[in-house]
Amino acid sequence: MSKQQGPMDLRQLRGTVAVVTGAGNHGIGWGLCCHAAGALGMHVIVIDLHEKLVREAESRLRELYPQVLCYGLACDVTEPQQLATVTAAIAELLPDKSIGAVFANAGVIFSHTVLNSTVQEWQTTLQVNVMGVVHTMQAFVPLLQAQEAESIFAATASIGGLVRGDNGGASYQASKHAVVATSEALSFELARKSPHVRVHVLCPCIVASALDKTSVVNQRVRDGESSADEVEALGSDSFRLAMTPERHAEQVFAHIEAGNFYMVTDNVRPYVDHDLPFDGVGIMRERHANMQALTLDNSDAWQRRPGMAPSAIMKGPMFGEPESI
Ligand SMILES: NC(=O)c1ccc[n+]([C@@H]2O[C@H](COP(=O)([O-])OP(=O)(O)OC[C@H]3O[C@@H](n4cnc5c(N)ncnc54)[C@H](O)[C@@H]3O)[C@@H](O)[C@H]2O)c1
After folding, report:
1. pTM greater than 0.85
2. Cα of 211 to ligand 1 centre, how many Å?
3. How far apart are the CA of 156 and the centre of ligand 1, in A?
4. Residue 320 has pLDDT above 80, yes or no
5. CATH code reported for the domain at 3-280
6. Where are the domains of the chain?
């Protein structure tokens, strides 16, 4: 087995640079930045859409982690030219540092059904979630290949990229399946040629963030309905069974350390303080059993639970207890 797939000693990341896209709000990317800077001693590049968001993230990180260098760079990951500007800026800002990890994490969600999603929602979702990851791969992977040291490229998909299609997340799940397949393809491409570039796909289950709100805010800015200068960093603590972004990041790096390609972060101890996991792997098994039998089990469409839409996904231990939601 190549080094690309085995366990990794995370101590080698100290003093290298972590690049995280979609880290300007208080979600998964922000947690990855904090863990990289605080626990691993990595320098950090925060990338997000708006100058105001990345400036604020940069100054928060500098205050929290004065021992490392932190920079915020505004970039729309759907624009390859902007990513080229970012890689040039990193080379200028940190000329003597190697890149230890790139997290292609920017994303959007519009939770509507196949029939009710607008064409614009489909286009934005595929542009950001799929092409944003592809552009980030094309901008950074050649740099990682050219370095001698080991490095990590991780794309954020979702558990929605591994389980069967469901009620209301049509464009999102389609895009996240594409992220999983693209990450598998990149891993295969590099396995023999550049095994020192370790590829992973991150498949979170439920992490506290404001993804639904940041998606709408960014769409409004794109449509000229509000100004980028007014955008405030958003997070969420409303769902008590969700992982916090900081503890989620601990599990992500534990997966990297263990050499796990599919980084499913399943709301399990010790990363949460409860015993009601999402059970993403269980739902993956159900789907694979369906596939092997060439059938699709839609029986969950008939299930009625108070306060919840029927779902083939939101049904594990986490969703079993009415008071847990
Ligand atoms: N929170 C969860 O439970 C969960 C579960 C599975 C997957 N995810 C994925 O995790 C990733 C991070 O989401 P989050 O939940 O932390 O929410 P978040 O809103 O904190 O992060 C998404 C970020 O992407 C940025 N972004 C959107 N379009 C962009 C673009 N074109 N260029 C640059 N940045 C852009 C947003 O401004 C935002 O900061 C997403 O890819 C999301 O699909 C989240």
Report:
1. yes
2. 6
3. 9
4. no
5. 3.40.50.720
6. 3-280
